[in-house]
Inverse folding.
């Protein structure tokens, strides 16, 4: 996908700037940029966080998984913008590069950029090879943690996998399964359906579609921030840094940031050429535009976002409850779903995770270092939530682990790492009792 020139500069990219001092030229911020790539950030398993072992007296008996697809190609709008806006902009920058404030090796890295031939409309939104690797690694790690559940041989009697009707989710499902099972000769999953009522519940929620997704009021904060002094200052800084005789437009700086994020993901976290145009302040502002939109469209910004996600929690509860109802015949061991950002974010909100300070256009300067609804952290490619049910010594002693990005987390004020299953069940019962999807999604309710 990349020219040999770009490949050479990937290596040279981190070489210290020799021709200028840091005060005279702008250098890339390096791996720190990964904190600001929003929903395009590649999945990175946090190996620095130690695994919390399962108690010796307990055995995993049920595993439920809900995850976003892996790293993908851009959608058609972004691909066209990369072709029609980014490519001519690159030519314009190349012609004025001697006026730029970039360090010499950083200039050369940016100049080496070419849009890959595989970034085309035939591949739009499809799973990238990097995404396949991400899901294979996730599947392999879960198999390593729970080998008695992910047996060598896949069986329809004990395992159930399901994806939406998008190529990227189906391919993610297959990649996960290829590593989770040694033998997939009998592997089967149901034909995906359009607007799956569990995996894409929001697509059949009329209230969400009318009052949030297709309603301009849900993006008011985003629109205000796009014309704020913070965005204007970012545009001025980056335009000057690139040596342009004019200011970039919002559309131009946005597609620069989008390409930076996608290509960094495709290179497994190595910073892509367009990323060198931005400093920390710029990345903070650009990431905040994404976080604002997802907060209000998929997160805590509107009650219907998280209220409608009760159907996902209901599905998990039903699956886990099969074991409690009949330990000797508990149904399938594994239930795994492969979905999208819109579903995973709403489900995170339904679980009460990452619910900190409200974010809006006016409080960026106050919250930029402290807010928790950061899509770079909570909605990266391959983002996933899982429940593992443990049978411990006593027949009634059931424990539950809730995992986010493969790390145990606390939900509903229950302190883990593994919580009493019955306490968890009691905590979620009020949510399930009021989980009337038709009522929640009724536009007239």
């Amino acid at each position: 996908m990349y020219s040999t020139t770009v490949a050479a500069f990937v290596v040279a990219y981190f070489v210290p700037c020799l021709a200028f001092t840091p005060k005279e030229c702008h250098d890339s911020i390096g791996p720190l940029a990964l904190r600001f790539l929003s929903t395009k950030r590649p999945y990175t398993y946090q190996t620095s966080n130690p695994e919390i072992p399962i108690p010796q007296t307990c055995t995993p008996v049920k595993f439920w998984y809900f995850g976003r697809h892996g790293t993908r190609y851009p959608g058609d709008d972004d691909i066209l913008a990369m072709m029609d806006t980014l490519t001519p902009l690159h030519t314009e920058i190349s012609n004025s590069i001697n006026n730029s404030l970039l360090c010499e090796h950083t200039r050369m890295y940016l100049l080496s950029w070419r849009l890959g031939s595989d970034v085309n409309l035939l591949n739009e939104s499809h799973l990238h090879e990097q995404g396949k690797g991400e899901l294979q690694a996730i599947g392999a790690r879960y198999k390593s943690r729970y080998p008695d559940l992910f047996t060598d041989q896949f069986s329809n009697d004990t395992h159930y996998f399901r994806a939406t009707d998008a190529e990227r989710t189906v391919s993610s499902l297959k990649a996960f399964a290829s590593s989770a099972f040694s033998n997939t000769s009998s592997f089967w999953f149901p034909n995906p359906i359009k607007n799956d009522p569990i995996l894409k519940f929001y697509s059949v929620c009329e209230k969400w579609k009318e009052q949030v997704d297709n309603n301009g009021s849900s993006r008011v904060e985003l629109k205000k921030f796009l014309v704020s002094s913070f965005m204007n200052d970012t545009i001025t800084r980056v335009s000057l840094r690139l040596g342009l005789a004019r200011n970039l437009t919002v559309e131009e700086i946005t597609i620069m940031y989008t390409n930076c994020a996608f290509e960094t993901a495709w290179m497994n976290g190595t910073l892509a050429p367009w990323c060198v145009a931005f400093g920390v302040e710029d990345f903070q502002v650009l990431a905040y535009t994404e976080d604002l939109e997802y907060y209000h469209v998929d997160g805590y910004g509107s009650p219907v976002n998280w209220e409608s996600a009760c159907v996902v929690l209901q599905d998990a509860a039903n699956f886990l409850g099969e074991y409690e109802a009949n330990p000797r015949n508990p149904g399938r061991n594994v239930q795994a779903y492969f979905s999208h950002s819109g579903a995973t974010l709403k489900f995170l909100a339904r679980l009460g995770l990452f619910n900190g300070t409200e974010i809006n256009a006016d409080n960026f300067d106050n919250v930029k270092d402290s807010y928790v609804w950061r899509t770079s952290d909570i909605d990266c490619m391959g983002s996933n939530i899982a429940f593992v049910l443990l049978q411990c010594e006593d027949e009634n002693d059931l424990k539950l682990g809730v995992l986010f990005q493969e790390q145990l987390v606390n939900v509903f004020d229950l302190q883990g790492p593994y919580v009493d299953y019955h306490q968890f069940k009691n905590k979620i019962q009020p949510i399930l009792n009021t989980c009337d999807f038709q009522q929640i999604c009724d536009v007239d309710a």
